Amino acid sequence: MLTVVLIGTGGSEGVPVPGCSCPACNEARHYRFLRRSTASLLITNYSMNMLVDMSLDASYRVEELYVGAVLVTHWHHDHIAGLYKFRWSETPIDLYAPRGSADPEIVHFPRSLRIHFVKPFEELYVGDFKVTTLKLNHTVETLGYLVELGRNTVAVLFDTKGLPSETLEFLKKRRVSLALVDATYKPGYEGEKHNNVDEAVEIGKDIGAEEVVLTHISHHNLPYSRLVKYVRERWRNVYVSYDGMIVNLI
Ligand SMILES: [Zn+2]
Ligand SMILES: [Zn+2]
Ligand SMILES: [Zn+2]
């Protein structure tokens, strides 16, 4: 069995944003269980605990686990701030990351982190997981990851706006059980470096994913309750994430 825990499902500012009184922030302030911390997730087979990105919040959520590896999508602060804590781990952690705009403090003083710089379309073996790095479209060099364990495959696709054609063609040829896709903005919002909801679903459908989970959701998106309604009325097998959501692949 492979379990995915979406620890943080927000954009770089999280939800609610301090001082903001937009509908998404107000909803999350009122219903505290709808708060979103910044993007991180845990993939585990109950033998190897592997994170994709490590936000500061995530570093506190997983401090009791032995984390064997972290796959870094890119070095924007919302995705890596927890590494400042986890580099003090008493056990070594393999860190896979693109070289582009790597955090100099982490690179020069990695302590327990064993840093491996990787490029798109490399195959890695991390515990029992087979991992393929993917190319994404973002402001800085950013990798997606296809994680395979037995018949199950999970595609992690944040942060990105659309997909580069190489990645689209690669994923079309693979069975994708679950796609976790950047859906930063509300429907109709034109962002340069992140998807809106419709663009995110289109990616999931284009690659033939059996289930699509929308994540990296910012306060520029609809409030959770309206977003769920919007998605439910249009698509099957598409889900809106929330912090702490668990998806099991059997
Ligand atoms: Zn981000
Ligand atoms: Zn807001
Ligand atoms: Zn980013």
Structure description:
It is a single chain. This protein has helices spanning 23-30, 56-61, 77-80, 83-86, 104-108, 165-172, 197-206, 224-232, and strands at residues 2-8, 40-44, 49-52, 69-71, 93-97, 113-117, 123-126, 129-135, 143-149, 152-157, 178-182, 211-215, 238-240, 245-249. With 250 residues, the protein is α/β, with parallel strands linked by helices. The strands form two sheets. A seven-stranded mixed beta sheet has the order 6-5-4-3-2-1-14. The chain has a single domain (2-249), classed as 4-Layer Sandwich (Metallo-beta-lactamase, Chain A), CATH 3.60.15. The protein is 22% helix and 28% strand. It has eight helices and 14 strands. One zinc ion binds next to α3. One zinc ion binds at residues 11-12, 39, 76, 78-79, 159, 216.
Query: Helix/strand-derived class?
Result: alpha/beta
Which strands sit side by side, in order, in the main sheet?
A: 6-5-4-3-2-1-14
The parts where pLDDT drops under 50 for at least 5 residues are: none
Binned strand content: 25-35%
Instruction: Provide the CATH topology.
Output: Metallo-beta-lactamase, Chain A
Mean pLDDT: 97
The percent of residues in helical segments reads: 10-25%
User: Ions, cofactors, ligands: which are bound?
Assistant: zinc ion
What is the level 1 CATH name? Alpha Beta
The count of DSSP E runs of length 2 or more, i.e. the number of strands, is 14
Radius of gyration: 17 Å
Number of domains: 1
Q: What is the number of helical segments per DSSP (H or I, 4+ residues)?
A: 8
The CATH architecture name reads: 4-Layer Sandwich
Principal-axes shape call: globular
Main sheet properties: 7 strands, mixed
* CATH level-four homologous superfamily name: Ribonuclease Z/Hydroxyacylglutathione hydrolase-like
Distance between the termini: 5 Å
Order of helices and strands: EHEEHEHHEHEEEEEHEHEHEE
